[in-house]
């Protein structure tokens, strides 16, 4: 990465951190930092242009629909910020394309990702798995008054249900060899946790 690129990355880093920290603790920036770290780990093994991967990881959830009346604005915000920091049009287009096409919700309609996009998508999915995935599932459920576990089997949705419905399918969706290996590791840990949890509950 050259000096100009490093300058753009530093500015994007500090602006994203500032804007997302304002959304409240545990919501956003901590996820972005982990995704960024995961992306670097995967890229170290499978390659890809670091500058693009770093920018896309940092910008991928900046306009999360949760905070913008159900409208996903991450791609738009990424374009706006990168243009303001004088990134080249090619960089703006590439990063915005990744940001617009990595989300799980858009899976049916998403356009094929570049190699850099595949790294960032795997990095994002990894953060839904493992110890952090367990915590995020519990936090998400709690914020909607959904139980993690329902011995009466009356709740329409549970955290454990989410593990089976979504999270245990992520491994198969991984794009990269490194991503799949890390996903496998994290899924194993979640299955071990569930086995212990169910044992303690007399299941
Ligand atoms: P992201 O911020 O990566 O786009 P989401 O906003 O979809 O992900 O979800 C945030 C976290 O909440 C993830 O860890 C996800 O697995 C979890 N989550 C999403 N939907 C549910 C659900 N119905 N029940 C429990 N956890 C969920
Ligand atoms: Ni994300």
Number of helices: 10
Poorly predicted tracts of residues: none
The succession of helices and strands, N to C, reads HHHHHHHHHH
Bin the helical content: 55-70%
From the coordinates shown, what is the CATH architecture? Orthogonal Bundle
Q: What does the average pLDDT come to?
A: 94
Structural class: mainly alpha
**Distinct ligand kinds:** adenosine-5'-diphosphate, nickel (II) ion
Secondary structure topology:
Elements: H1 3-21, H2 29-46, H3 50-59, H4 74-84, H5 89-101, H6 115-126, H7 130-143, H8 159-165, H9 170-173, H10 177-200
Helix pairs in contact: 1-3, 2-3, 2-6, 3-5, 3-6, 4-5, 5-6, 6-10, 7-10
Structure description:
By secondary structure, the protein is mainly alpha-helical. It has one domain (3-200): Hypothetical protein af1432, CATH 1.10.3210. The chain has 10 helices and no strands. It has helices spanning 3-21, 29-46, 50-59, 74-84, 89-101, 115-126, 130-143, 159-165, 170-173, 177-200. Helix 3 (50-59) crosses helix 5 and helix 5 (89-101) packs across helix 6. The radius of gyration is 18 Å and the shape is globular. The protein starts with a helix and ends with a helix. The mean pLDDT is 94. Bound molecules: adenosine-5'-diphosphate and nickel (II) ion. Nickel (II) ion is lined by residues 31, 35, 60-61, 124. Adenosine-5'-diphosphate (ADP) binds next to helix 7 and helix 8.
């Amino acid at each position: 990465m050259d000096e100009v690129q490093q300058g753009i990355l530093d500015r994007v880093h500090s602006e994203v951190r500032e804007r997302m920290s304002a959304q409240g603790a545990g919501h956003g920036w901590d996820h972005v930092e982990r995704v960024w770290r995961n992306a670097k780990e995967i890229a170290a093994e499978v390659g890809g242009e670091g500058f693009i991967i770093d920018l896309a990881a940092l910008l991928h959830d900046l306009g999360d629909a949760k905070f913008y009346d159900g409208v996903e604005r991450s791609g738009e915000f990424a374009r706006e910020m990168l243009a303001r920091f004088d990134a080249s049009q090619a960089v703006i287009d590439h990063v915005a394309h990744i940001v617009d096409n990595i989300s799980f919700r858009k899976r049916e309609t998403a356009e094929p990702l570049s190699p850099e996009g595949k790294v960032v998508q795997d990095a994002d999915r990894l953060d839904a798995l493992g110890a952090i995935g367990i915590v995020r599932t519990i936090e998400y459920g709690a914020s909607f008054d959904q139980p993690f576990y329902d011995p009466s089997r009356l709740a329409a949705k549970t955290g454990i249900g989410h593990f089976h419905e979504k999270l245990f399918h992520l491994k198969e969706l991984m794009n990269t060899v490194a991503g799949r290996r890390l996903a496998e590791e994290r899924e194993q840990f979640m299955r071990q946790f569930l086995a212990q949890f169910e044992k303690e509950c007399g299941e």
